[in-house]
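Standup notes
- DV: blocked on the single-chain target, sequence here:
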Amino acid sequence: MRNILLLLFTAFSTATAALAQPSPVGIWKTIDDKTGEAKSHLEVYEQGGQYYGKVVKLLKSSPDKKCTECPGSKKNQPILGMVVLEGMKPHEDYWRKGKILDPESGNEYGCTIWFEKGKPNELKVRGIHWTGLYRTQTWYRVNQGS
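- DV (later): unblocked, structure below
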């Protein structure tokens, strides 16, 4: 009986913690980590237990700008509407093992995203190069209607 109660308590605690964790789902203003300028709005959504992000608004470029440097099927496609964040898998209190595309350079990176404690409207996004070097950006949640 004691083991059953302990198991139920652990399951309840884990479920409660998962519910309290902020979700990356929503619209995010992307900020260039080199210039500090807002570049786009990206919609993060969940599909099949993984998280993806597509460009829904360009803030510094023409809406018909194409990804001339992108690899494969994304080459010369419009950046607006393009999925640039793919396959993010939940892990503990963050998401990992996805990839992110930089439409300016056409480079793809491994990706990890997370929230700093107490900051549910700031998403940390780290692109990781195969060499182990990385860049981290902070994206800001866009309130509906703004």
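- Follow-up: The two ends are 53 Å apart (CA to CA).
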